[in-house]
Design goal:
Length: 283
Amino acid sequence: MQNTERPDWSPDFAQRSPLFEPLHAWSLAFTRFTQGWPDLDAYQQLLDAQSEPIRTHSGQALKIVPQDSRPQRFEEHYAPRIYMTGELQTRRDNWHDFFQFLSWLTFPRTKAVINALHVPHAEARLAGGGDLGRRTPLENMLSLFDEGGAVVIASDPSLLQLIRDFQWKTLFWERRGDLARDLRCISFGHAVYEKALRPYLGMTANAVLLDVEPDLLLLPMESLLPALDERLAALFTNGTLYTQPRDLQPFPILGMPGWDPANAQAAYYDKVQYFRPGRGTRP
């Protein structure tokens, strides 16, 4: 069961698990905050230090602002405000919003595409007198990936097929050697990172599966992330492969070798409550 108590600030959070590897370079900017949470000015300073501004699809430079009160107009809502002004509303002393900020640094193109895709759908609902909160299947899929997503890349298509077929023990244990060589899992969603502060058996990512060339798997993280960002942004812009929540693949992310110390034993993968045999099935 998940521990819902919010963990305190920890400047060494990125050292806790391989799951945090995509954020490692950014985390170094916060290691000096040993006495408590960095303030929002520290977030903005990291944005300002980039060689080029991170921009929304409307051309606005991303900027950190405190979270405001309840929005009164469309353009004051979270996603439209980012798109129209670049203002990323951020709560102080809050892991969820901290990881949201870091995910914009890590995947700027993809985050901008996801944000831009939300806005016209929300506008159309309001124009038709609909409820702003009643999202389309596309918006639901984008939100699930944005919050809880991961990218699984493999140069061996048979490994991706094992994921689609929910053959978890074969994938994570019997093909463990192939997994180490031919597959990488990159955490995307800010909620995934928040949960990883206190991981629990049941953590499941909503994954995009990509068949890639072997050379991509060999790239160091600082080169791999921009390449994946470009591919994800193009994939969501294209809008044909991922259009509804069911298009995302459930992925028990703690099954990745070493991502939970307990998974060094084969019996770990016999926990059918976590490693389910298929969508909608119950052990």
